[in-house]
Each structure stands twice: as C-alpha cells, then as structure tokens.
Amino acid sequence: MDEQRWEALECTHLTTSGLQTLVPKEPQTTLYATGFKGTVCNYPESCVFRYDGQAFYTWEPFELIPSNPDNYIGHVFDFLGHTYITGSFRDPLGPGFVDFLRFDGSAWEHVPGWDAAATIKTISIRNDTLYIGGTFREAGGGPGNLIAYFDGTTWNNMGGGLDYTPVPMSATVLDLEWFNNELYVGGMFNVAGEIPVEGLAVWKGDRWCRLPGDFASNQWNSAKILDITVWRDSLYICGGFISIDGEPIRQVAQYIGGDAVGDCSLPVAVNEQISAPTFTLSPNPTNGTLRLQGLPAEARRLLVRDALGRVVHVQTTNLYQLELGHLPAGTYLVHVLDAGGGLSGQARFVRY
C-alpha cells in the first residue's frame, strides 16, 4: 500500500499570514485562500489567492479593491455569470467599507438589494438560487433577517427569516445544508418565521418547520448549532447542546427522525409562476369586497399577502367572502390553507 502523507502546495511559507479560509464552500473550478492580508509563494500580500490544483496565483480582481489593513475576505464564489465576494473591505465604488460585492468580468458592482453592514457567514447555491446566512437584518438594509435567497436580480426574505429574542445582537446563521431537497439551517436563533425553534430549523420552500426534540444547554437559553453536515445519507449536527429530550446527547448528534417535523409556520409567497387557480375571485379587480367560489372542500383558512409577501389579512370564518376595503391599492395573493396549514390553492387579485 502506498504511504499516505501530507505535502505542501507548490511552495513553502517562511512565516504565517492572515489567510485562514479555503473557499468556495460549493464545488467550483477554482479554490481560493482568503482572509486578512497575507502572502503565499512570495507573492505581494493580498486577501485572496487562487489555486488551480497545480499552483497558487494572485487574483487580479482583488487588485481593484482599495488597500486597507482591515480588509478581510470570507467567501469567493461564482453565481450566474458573476464572481461574488463577502467579508469586510474598502468599497471600490465609494467611501467606507462594504460586505458584499460582485465582479462582472471587468469591474466591481454592488449586489442589487444589498445595503447592510453585516457579516455573511455561509452561502449555498441550488437550482440557480443563492442562499445566504449571517447576521444581517432587514432593518439594517439586509434583504432578510439572518437569511435570504437571491435569483440574481431580486431577493426573498424567506418568511420573515429568523431571530434570537433573548439577545437579538447575538442572533446569527452559521451553516446551511441541503438534505432530502430541504434546507437545514443552524445557528443562534429561537424563532423561525413565527414558530419557536432551538438553533435549528428546516426551510421547506414556502414555510419554516422545527425538528422534534427539546435541546438543552448549560450556557444559553437556546442551543447554538455550529455546523451541519450530511454523511452516508444521514444528517449530523454539532453545537452547544448537552441533552436532547432529556437524553445526555452532547455536542454532536445524528438525526434519525426521517421526515418527521414539529410545528410549521404559515406558507409564504415564493418567486415562482402561480399555477392556475382552482377557484374563482370576483369581482377582480375589486374595490374591497371579494367573493370566492369553488373553494376546495379542505379549505379552513384564507391568507392574503401583498406584493412583498407580507401577510395583510387572515380569515378563518365565512371563507366565501373577503372584506378588504382596509387594504391599499395593489396586487395581492390569496392562499387557501387546509387544517394542517398546507396550501390547497392560490389566486391573485387587484385592489383598486
């Protein structure tokens, strides 16, 4: 058997440097060494070097970022024809620092819809959609609260995002992991959408759900989930918990619950083509009164959302007529929910 050993990557380093991360997290053609200013292979100091499997190189786009000793680069990744960087670094397009930029092949530009001064901790790309998690807030200019997704042009706040109510300043998303076509999110939070969670939640494409299990910690009111991974078709988590459901399960756990979930939030609007409705709304456009005909038999609740996906009206009785004179003019979406909160139908209408 051949001897297995470590070896240096193409060059030796006489001193340590501020480089501390290998990215991207998603498999792509180029590996980047990122962090604070440092050097490899006797190149001039930089916060980014690229590696093609045979040698390190300087990364020319970073040369366009103004030099500053506090510059830090976290992630570098390609998405829909642009190269994105995250971190905290001087803005090449104006004064001050920025946290998120993209490169179009010749120049840097601000990411549309991003105006936060906050850290992006983790990213995931799936089906031409970019998911990001970190410490950003809608109130601070972020596209969501700790988490959001992006189609290259517009953002979605994923049902209002996440929060940690005991210490809001400590709230963060630390990891994103796909398992059985659903997004598992770990970090420091105790609310997902409108439901209580304990540092771990699953996004099902239109709603948040909690996993069964009572996590306990001797340090925080809510167990902090530091990392999630999938290995041999099982989901594993690690974090600050010392027990789950009273069992002494410390820091690392395997999830064996299959498809079981606990409570789920109400479904939210998604940026997808709305299928043809199975019921009718009239009159449409309306000046306030809206009649519904042909509702599915399982209908138990009506949910009205505005063009930004915000819930503006909920109704659980007299499902065949909505009085919406209090809503401003605009386009809205009616969701019909069954007893379990599942989506049974949806249709758009205009309030004039």
The CATH top-level class label of the largest domain: Mainly Beta
Mean pLDDT: 86
Residue share in β-strands: 35-45%
Strand order of the largest sheet: 1-2-3-4
CATH fold description of the largest domain:
Methylamine Dehydrogenase, Chain H
Number of helices, where a helix is a run of at least 4 consecutive DSSP H or I residues: 0
Under the CATH scheme, the architecture of the largest domain is 7 Propeller
Task: Describe the overall structure.
This protein has 352 residues and is an all-beta fold. Helices cover 0% and strands 44% of the residues. The chain has strands at residues 19-23, 31-38, 46-51, 56-58, 72-79, 82-90, 97-103, 108-110, 120-126, 129-134, 147-150, 155-156, 162-163, 172-179, 182-188, 191-192, 195-196, 200-203, 208-209, 215-216, 225-231, 234-239, 243-244, 252-255, 280-282, 289-293, 301-305, 311-315, 321-323, 330-337, 343-351. The strands form nine sheets. The protein has a four-stranded antiparallel sheet, with no helix packed on it. Strands 5-6-7-8 form a four-stranded antiparallel sheet, with no helix packed on it. The protein has a four-stranded antiparallel sheet with strand order 9-10-11-12, with no helix packed on it. The protein is globular and about 75 Å long. The protein starts with 18 loop residues before the first strand and ends with a strand.
